[in-house]
Amino acid sequence: MEDRIIAKLSIQLSANRATIDRHEQTIQEVETTLNDMETRLTTLEPTCSALTKENEALRRKTDDLENRSRRNNIRITGLPEKVEGSQPTSFIEVFLKETFGATAEAFPTPVFDRVHRIATPRKRQDDPPRPFIARMHHFQTKECILKLAREAGSLSFRGSEVHIYPDYSAEVSKKRAAYFTVKSQLRNAGFTYRMFFPAKLQVTDKHGQKLTFPSPREVSTFLASNLPGTSLTPTA
User: Fold this and answer.
1) Is residue 132 within 8 Å of residue 184, measured between CB atoms?
2) 134 CB contacts (<8 Å, ≥6 apart)?
3) Rounded to an integer, what is the distance from CA 208 to the centroid of its chain?
C-alpha cells in the first residue's frame, strides 16, 4: 500500500519537476528576448531622437519656404461671392482703386501674377465668402497696399466690410490667430499694437514704450498687470 502511494507521489513529483523545468526554460527565453529588446531599444533611442530633431528641422524649413513663396501675396476677406464675375484680376484692380480712393495713387497700377479665391468649397449658402489671394508681381507694391490698409483702419467696398492681410502658411496663421482675444482686449484698453513675423506682437504702452511679446500668454500677463480686473487669457 505504502509502496503504491510512494510510487504515485514519485510520478507526480517527476511530472511537477518536468513542468518546472519547462517554466524555467520559458523564463530564460523571455529574459533573453527582453535583454535583446532592451539592447535594441537602447540603440534605437538616439536614432529616434535624431530623426525627431531632423523632422522638426525639415518642418520648420518647409514652413519657411512656404512663407517665402507667399511673400508677394495679399489675402482679401469679406468680398461677396461671384462679385468678381469671370475676371478676378480686373475686379481686384477696381477693388483697390475704389477702396483706397485717392490714396491708391500712392502706388502704380498693380501688376498681378495671379488672382483667385481659395479653393475651399462653401458647404452652405450662408457661409462666409471665400478669401481672395492676389499675388503681386512686385514685393514693394504688396507692402504699399498693406501699409495703406493699416493706415485706413477699417475698409469697406460697396457696403461690405473687407480686410486685407499678408498671406501666411497654415502654421503661421494658426500662431497669429491665437492672439485674437488679447488683441481685442488691447484695443478696448486703448493700446496700439502691431504684429511681426512670424507671430510676435509689439504693444505700445501708455508711456510710448514699445514692448514685444512672443506669445498671447505674455500679452495677457501684461494686460493683467496694467489693467486691474483683467483675467489671464487661457492659452492652449
Assistant:
1) no
2) 73, 74, 76, 92, 110, 112, 114, 115
3) 31
Looking at domain 174-226, its CATH class is alpha beta
Of the candidates 103, 180, 169, 112, the one whose C-alpha atom is nearest the C-alpha of residue 141 is: 112
Residues 78, 149 contacting (CB under 8 angstroms): no
- For residue 165, with 0-12 CB atoms within 10 Å meaning exposed, 13-18 middle and 19 or more buried, which class applies? middle
> CB within 8 A of 21, min separation 6: which ones?
none
Q: CA-to-CA distance for 112 and 109, rounded, in angstroms?
A: 10
Spans of all domains in the chain: 1-69, 71-167, 174-226
Closest to 179 measured CA to CA, from 210, 152, 212:
212
CATH class of the domain defined by 71-167: alpha beta
- Find, among 144, 145, 166, the residue nearest to 74 by Cα: 166
Say what the pTM is.
0.71
With contact defined as beta carbons under 8 Å apart, do 149 and 77 qualify? no
Digit-coded pLDDT (tens) for 47-76: 999 999 999 999 999 999 999 999 999 999
Contact 75, 165 (CB under 8 A): yes
Model pLDDT for residues 173-192, shown as the tens digit of each residue: 999 999 999 999 998 888 98
